Amino acid sequence: PPQRVFVRQSLANNLRHELIFGITKTTLDYYQKNFGQRYPFSKVDHVMCPDYKYGAMENVGCITYSDSIMCSSQQMSIPQLTFFCVVIQHELAHMWFGNLVTMQWWNDLWLNESFATALSYYACAEGGPFVEEFKNESWLHFANYKRWGLSDDLQPTNHNIEAECANTDVSESLIDGITYGKGASLLKQLIFLMGWKAFTNGIKLYFKEYKWTNTTLHDFIGKLQQGYDETLGDGKLNLESWADKWLRTKGPNKITYEFQHEEGVITSFKIRQGFCKFGDEVFRKQSINIGFFDQYLNFEEHQNIVIQDRELTEVPQLVGLQVPEAILMNSNDHGFGVFIIDDKSIRFFEENLSKLENQLNKAVVIGQLLIMLRQILYPATRLPILLNQMMDEPNQNLINAVYMSLVQAQSIYLPPENVQKFNKEVADFFLRKAVKERADPKLQMFCLDKAFGFMYDEENLSMAAKWVDTPGKIEIFGEEMEATLTEDQ
Ligand SMILES: [Zn+2]
After folding, report:
1. Is residue 265's pLDDT more than 80?
2. N- or C-end of the chain: fewer Cβ atoms within 10 A?
3. CA 445 – CA 396 distance, rounded (Å)
């Protein structure tokens, strides 16, 4: 379809129109292939709006965006650019899921939003023309998004995914981490449980039957079940029961493990489900991978381990294996829950995180420790240890994951008497990293940006004060380098 983009004159220089057109074209191809339906409208317009309340909105054939997200600056960090990409892909997914088929009532808002969110990250991870540079960023970015869902689900204000919604005024309150972050995470889990082929078969059946109509959760689940049965036909998955336990309850499960061993060999391994405060007492079925690390950091992943919907699940696949140095539940991040890392493994990751080969597993470790922090199972005073593992890390999405928790720790989780020392440690870390990354000006600027919120002590402040007087140059700890600060900074 033809595309146009509109922006106010004053931001025209910041507009990445070629990227917008390119992402759109690549993504429409991807959705058409997987949904089995052509793009249902005759054009795609992109309209950048000032002071827009939401990130973007999927009007039929005409996406309206917040211009502050899409084109406020010429310099965007990698996490911002990843988000830029998935926002477009999210709105495009709505052209099918939302516009071609629409939920009957707001209680199924998650059907629109979780689907659009999850599929946008799949489209991003798929890569292809124009999306290639974000390919490896997609699930790293999503890991932070998932943590938003998990955090909201741990609060007293949590709610079922299939929410109650008395009237349209209430619907606004459903725009939260549960509808977006948790819902999308559960679709990702469901896709892992069903397999991509069965899932997309179900989606194709759904669009074929319900296009240009309104639907409910029951319709959606029914077609996914049909897709699963026609593809695999093993009778192993009852999706109505899955929906009851995951979508019509609230709160995540706390997931731990216990094992016995003889002479260094595992003789039994059990996964235990518990409950979290403010959550319903329900055991839930899900499929995850479990990673084992040995002392030489070799990683072995045990895949598709199904946790049953009961308190204890035996895992015979792990019996007979050597006792590992560290265990990572939910490696590669398909599951949803409060996965607790044991003390020995925590020490291992605090020492070795930077050396893990798989970037996504770094994000999983960081995410699990940060959720444990929220649950008072990991002390905020240890965050600088975790942060130090990021000294050689070039990936901005991973640095960002730790950074967001540093900000929270600073204001919420630290004992007041520790805040000053903490600020100094964090500011020094980002300043030292900025010096170290001088060969990569974008990463250097990213680190400087992160340092600002923690620079409270006199020494740092007087150093920063001089930067204002020397345009194009800054001096950090006696080292002079080229850098131009933006107005925001
Ligand atoms: Zn949406």
Report:
1. yes
2. C
3. 11
Instruction: Tell how far the Cα of 107 is from the centroid of ligand 1, in angstroms.
Output: 15
Which tokens in the block code for residue 150? Answer: 């998990």
- pLDDT for 411: 87
The neighbouring-strand residues paired with 474 are 481
SS (H, E, C) 66-95: EHHHHCCCCCCCHHHHHHHHHHHHHHHHHH
Measured distance CA(64)–CA(49) in Å, rounded: 7
Which pLDDT does position 459 carry in this prediction? Answer: 87
> How close is the Cα of 91 to the center of ligand 1, in Å?
6
3-197 adopts what CATH topology? Neutral Protease; domain 2 (1.10.390)
Residue 350 phi, psi (nearest 5) = -60, -30
pLDDT digits (tens, 9 = 90+) for 123-182: 999 988 888 888 899 999 999 999 999 999 999 999 998 877 778 887 777 778 998 999
How far does the centroid of ligand 1 lie from the alpha carbon of residue 440, in Å? Answer: 35
Which residue type is seen at 389?
Answer: Q
- Amino acid 231 reads T
Flag whether pLDDT at 236 surpasses 90. Answer: no
What is the set of active-site residues?
A: 91
Q: How confident is residue 489, by pLDDT bands cut at 50, 70 and 90?
A: low
Shortest CA distance to 185 belongs to which of 303, 286, 334, 289?
A: 334
